[in-house]
Amino acid sequence: MLRGVAGCVASRHNVGRVHTRRIVPLLLLVAACTAGGPAPDSDPTTGTRPPIYTTDAAPPPEVLPDSGPITRPNPDAGKDGSVETVKDAGTLPDGSAPITGIVPGELLISEVMYNPAGTEPDSEWVELHNTTTRTLNLAGLMLVDSSARVSVVGPGVTLGAGAYGVMVRKRAGSTVPGTAIIFEYGLVQPGVQMVNSASGVLQLKDGPTLLAECKYGAFAVGGTAASAQLKTLTLVGSQAAGGWCTSQNTWSGSGADRGTPGMASDCP
């Protein structure tokens, strides 16, 4: 070991004498040799010693702060010209479509024809009412009957601000005015079929969220060839028997059926 150090010292001393004509202190040269690296003046360009270790980890990537929920202007402005801002839901973690953003009370089941004069269940229908000042996208919503049968609303189905729209089980042969029909839910079987008994109920759901409900059986409203109509257009009102009535009047082209499909209630 001493012989190696001496050789290193001699070598460094000769280089220093030839190129710099100065005497390098012995202790500095010994430290450089024992550390395993080149002498301080071994780089003729910079005169500095290169780093011994070259495997230092790269600095961690920059992490930007979370800016919170992203919001966007709702494309459906209110009638008064206001623009509502809603949360941009994007896609769900499982890759499925986002939820609609409709909250309970914004969309009501406003009329149910569960026992029509025509053939059942194909002549049945349900009316929805949009209580908001924006157009609602109904795609993906579910109609659920008392036997847990489900009909899912297809793509492209919307309901305008303050409007009434009817979902019929079968469009062909329906006495509901064509301009009032927004969706035909009986194309996929078995689909919703409403019972004519005290257990009768119809729900509108957005995934697990109950948006609206009509307990026509328990409330004893509606009947043969007469729809059950909501006269109190609030979610709270729809949960009480007093918020409903039995239709008394026929509409143009209805035959024997009484109701107001696609129009406001005629409840007294």
Write a concise synopsis of the structure shown.
This protein has 268 residues and is of the alpha+beta class.
- CATH structural fold name of the domain at 104-246: Immunoglobulin-like
Average the pLDDT over all residues and give the rounded result: 75
Low-confidence stretches: 1-46, 48-98
What's the gyration radius in Å? 39 Å
Structural class call reads: alpha+beta
Q: What is the multimeric organization of the chains shown? A: single chain
- Annotation, overall tally of beta strands: 14
Intertermini distance: 112 Å
Tell me the strand order in the biggest sheet: 10-9-4-3-13-14
| Helix-strand pattern | HHEEEEEEEEEEEEHEHE
What count of helical segments does DSSP give? 4
| Percent range of helical residues | 10-25%
CATH homologous superfamily placement of the domain at 104-246:
Lamin Tail domain
Q: What is the CATH class of the domain at 104-246?
A: Mainly Beta
Global shape: globular
The major sheet is characterized as: 6 strands, mixed
CATH architecture of the domain at 104-246: Sandwich
Q: How much beta, percentage-wise?
A: 15-25%
